[in-house]
Amino acid sequence: MKQLFSLYRRNGIYYAQNTQNGKQESLRTRDEAAAKALLHSKNEASRQPILNRQIALAYLSATDAAAAKRTWKFVMDEMAATKQGVTRHRYDIAWKDPAFELIGKLPLLETNAEHFLKVLRTGTVSTNHYLRRLHNFALEMNWLPKSVVPRRQWPKAVHKEKRAITQAEHETIIANEKNSERRAFYQLAWHMGAAQTDLATLTAEDVDWEQKTIGFFRRKTGTVARLHFGPVVAAILQDLPGSGPLFPYIATQSAGDRSNQFRKRCNRVQITGVTLHSYRYSWAERAKTAGYPERFAQEALGHKSQAVHRSYAKRAKMLLPTLEDYEKKAEANQTPVAG
User: Fold this and answer.
1) Rounded to the nearest 5 degrees, what angle is found at the Cα of 143, between the Cα atoms of 137 and 147?
2) Euclidean distance between CA atoms 260 and 256, whole angstroms
3) Residue 46: which of 3, 110, 16, 6 has the closest Cα?
4) Partners of 26 in the beta sheet?
5) Residue 62 above 70 pLDDT?
6) What are phi and psi of 165, to 5 degrees?
7) Is the overall model pTM greater than 0.70, yes or no?
8) N or C, fewer C-beta in 10 Å, the chain?
9) Per-residue buried b or exposed e for 322-337, using 16+ beta carbons within 10 Å of the residue's own CB
10) Other C-beta atoms within 10 Å of 181: how many?
11) Which residue has the higher pLDDT, 283 or 329?
């Protein structure tokens, strides 16, 4: 087995040099015999872990020939291959994160916590989410003998503050939007609260003028949302195509392109801290403030979980009437009993 450390002398002082990474360390002696003894002890200290690893790899290779060579890039590709459609595209984009290049060529069995922590420090909140999924996928496929980072020690993802777009901000964007198709898109986002891709792919056939409803399939959850619309939305719809896509050009764009264009329009009128998704927060907060039943809001937003809807509407300020007012109304509505 090749020795990890080699001996050399410089200016009369003996040094140990790591043959793998070239790092040099002074042995703090001019005595050759003492230097050789120190070098021997360092090589012996490193020999056992390396030997143990080689033994372990030999056993693993007997049952899994690719165990020693399987890298995180391989895991990324295999994980993405299990996804389809928009989700597959999302994973393909996620793996292009420069932070993942730090471990792409790293064999799984040579990975330690420091490698993952460096990726997390280099990346973003999204990196945290996808690295956790990648790690769990490798564990579930039995490609990792144990967790690289224990579940409880995994760094918490800290999200940026998310807020709803205000009515004044929305009206400013609409007033400065010259493109009629995009202006109608933002107006329907305000009134419907639909996710941008669901809204962009609406067709004229999704509109039931007799029932005054718009029905659409939520791609993210696989549920169907069906909304009644009033005169304001009807007026917007009447100016859109009567057949095929309601937004012919916007429907052909990627979510990223639609988001970039919205951001540019916000920058133009000096609006910060919002994205297209902020329209959903706004819709939910307005619904909560207006006393719109939560179960209706869930159906409209396409979410079944009460916790999800409450997270959307957590910033809403709802004015609650006093119990005294309700008691007075109850007394006024009581029917006198005949004597």
Assistant:
1) 70
2) 6
3) 3
4) 15
5) no
6) -80, 135
7) no
8) C
9) eeeeeeeeeeeeeeee
10) 16
11) 283
Q: Are 102 and 118 in contact (CB under 8 A)?
A: yes
DSSP one-letter code for 31: -
Q: Any idea which residue has 């290049």 for tokens?
A: 101
Is pLDDT above 80 for 71? yes
Comparison of pLDDT for 265 and 50, the residue scoring more: 265
Least confident of 81-95, 236-250, 261-275: 81-95
167-312, what's its fold? hpI Integrase; Chain A (1.10.443)
Residue spans per domain, the chain: 5-63, 72-153, 167-312
Q: Distance from first CA to last CA of the chain, Å, rounded?
A: 108
Query: Is the separation of the CB atoms in 139 and 104 below 8 Å?
Result: no
Confidence tier at 307 by pLDDT (50, 70, 90)? very low
Instruction: Identify the band that residue 52 occupies on the pLDDT scale cut at 50, 70 and 90.
Output: low
Spatial separation of the C-alpha atoms in residues 289 and 319, rounded to whole Å: 7
CA distance 200 to 248: 9
Question: What's the CA gap between 8 and 196, in Å, rounded?
Answer: 65
Please give the sequence-ordered ranges of beta strands (E in DSSP) within 114-241, or none if there are none. Answer: 207-208, 213-217, 224-228
Q: Is the dihedral of CA 223, 227, 233, 236 positive or negative?
A: positive
